[in-house]
Amino acid sequence: MKNQLKTYYIPLRKSVFWPPFILISLAVSCSWLASDFFEDSMNSINQFILDHFSIIFSYTAFAMVITCCLILCSPLAKIKIGGKDAKPKFNRLSWFSIILCTTVAVGILFWGSAEPLFHYLYPPEFKDIPNNSSIAANFSMGAVFLHWGFTPYAIYCIPALGIALAVYNAEQKFSLSSPLAPLLGKNKLNQFSSPIDTICLFALVAGMSASLGAGILSISGGIQNQWPNWDKAFIRPTVTLLIISTFILSASSGINRGIKRLSQINFYIFIIFSLFILTTGPSQSIFHYAIEGASHFLTDFIPISLQFGNIKHSPWLQSWTIFNWANWMAWAPITALFLGKIAYGRTVREFILFNWILPAIFCLIWMSILGGSTLFYAENTPLTFKNLLENNGPESIIYQVFAEMGNLELLTPAFTLAMFISYVTAADSNTEAMASLSMKNYSIERFDSDTNLKVTWGTLVGLLAWVMITFAGIEGVKILSSLGGLPALFLLIGITISMLLLIWKPSKYLKK
In angstroms, rounded to a whole number, what is the distance separating the alpha carbons of residues 119 and 98? Predict the structure, then answer.
């Protein structure tokens, strides 16, 4: 009996685990018992965040891009994470696969077709370009490049590098407050540790729920496309339950087995899928949109990032750019714990290459292929795509693209499977970090965290995602992103300042 009790014993950091767990549980309960009040409250909070913090989101994201560039050009780039004798735990391909699949989740699958179509049909008012035009299509790809390229991966890269250096080179404890040592001083870290970890746990639960919500919508859309007579009210909870169950099985097998293997499978699926669409789809148009997108991205990067002129008060900016920055920031702190944990034995320059540059390039290629294909077919039949978007939701767009290509029956099951594996992989990695943060006396040498905690967090995330898409659809996903991103924003500001101090004088803060 004692052995059985020991098996289910979870060594909790109560001050870190219980506050976000209770808040999220109350949110789920409230949405069921008082759905109208819950929806109105969430919308009000979301609008307040967008009205008052959008410029801080934008400037922080831009500063993190600049910080990545400065690190690459500084002496800090030569330092090895863990000291000169440290050896990596994974080969480069496994490392990159884990990084990529931890960070993209289902985002590039869900939004790869939906987002370019939104910008094509409804371009921002500050651009003064006609709807459904070739100019709108070119701008659309530039906007996608901004939202899915170097800025979001800088948002991940800076805190991940800060945690890796703090834990492995400065010998700080495994906590989200550790990278703040250059800013706050080592003596003040302990008093900030639990509050910061608590807030960021809440942020990631919201961010992961937003991502899973998008995944549930898209996977359900694929199933509905294959079997149109099936009831949505049955499909969505079934998909949610299946994802959670698969994730639990994967979580129990640890990093070296579950996460590593799933990530490699997911990576190969991405490669095969993108090559198939590139060779069988409108290849010439894909390259055209990629070139035009890159041009518009370079032109609009600074004005949109810094909200110049009338861009500042644009509803489009709030609905898209700030939504994206909030979503990435919600994920960033906890994801950074995991990315920092697996970076042992790599130089800082190598870390920047594999966590910032290469994933961003991969996402831009993927978005060019899916987005370019969508825009090609949408320009030919804009009303078809507009009606589909308005009546069936954004999750239906990719399946219309497959139908236009003449490969619906082949690509739909493959895409649905890729969506499923993508979320399970990302959830596995991030709940690994969430569980590590929730554990009492967690040591980095242990590497794998408590399975029961991973299952607990994963189940809660699944419930919240299902509740939000049931009551608010895609808007529920966007609300969760903003709610999760706000508390993470201030931590990321502090870590960015700390990294700038570290660049200036690394020997002052690093022991190895």
Answer: 31
| Assigned token pair, 259 | 């996460």
**22, part of any domain:** no
**Reduced to 3 DSSP states, what percent helix, strand and coil does the chain have, rounded to the nearest 5?**
85, 0, 15
**Number of neighbouring beta carbons within 10 Å of residue 192:** 17
The CA-based angle 48-495-438, given to 5 degrees, is 80
The dihedrals phi and psi of 12, each to the nearest 5 degrees, come to -80, 145
Helix (H, G, I), strand (E, B) or coil at 482: helix
Extract the tokens encoding 407: 């490969």
User: From CA 217, how far away is CA 205, in angstroms rounded?
Assistant: 18
Q: 68 and 157 in contact (C-beta within 8 Å)? A: yes
39 inside domain: no
Please state, in angstroms and rounded to a whole number, the distance separating the CA atoms of residues 140 and 239: 31
Domain membership flag for residue 44: no
Other beta carbons less than 10 A from residue 322's beta carbon: 26
For 107, the domain range is 50-509
- Cβ neighbours around 104 below 10 Å, total: 23
Report pTM: 0.86
**Identity (one letter) of the amino acid at 201?**
L
Residue 417: inside a domain: yes
Per-residue pLDDT tens digits for 330-388: 778 878 888 998 999 999 999 999 999 999 999 999 999 999 999 999 999 999 999 99
**DSSP helix/strand/coil, 305:** helix
Number of domains in the chain: 1
Question: Mind listing the pLDDT tens digit for each residue in 85-131?
Answer: 899 988 999 999 989 988 886 678 878 899 999 999 999 999 989 99
∠ Cα 75 77 81 (to 5°): 120
What's the rounded Cα separation, in Å, for the pair 492 and 158? 8
The CATH number covering residue 110 comes to 1.20.1740.10
Q: Rounded to whole angstroms, what are the CA distances from 63 to 302, 339, 373, 377?
A: 11, 20, 33, 37
Count CA atoms within 13 Å of residue 451 on its CB side.
12
CB count in 10 Å sphere of residue 510 = 19
Residue in 447, 494, 487 with CA at minimum distance from that of residue 204 = 487
Q: Could you read off the pLDDT of 239-296 as tens digits, one per residue?
A: 888 877 776 676 666 555 667 788 888 889 889 989 999 998 899 999 999 999 999 9
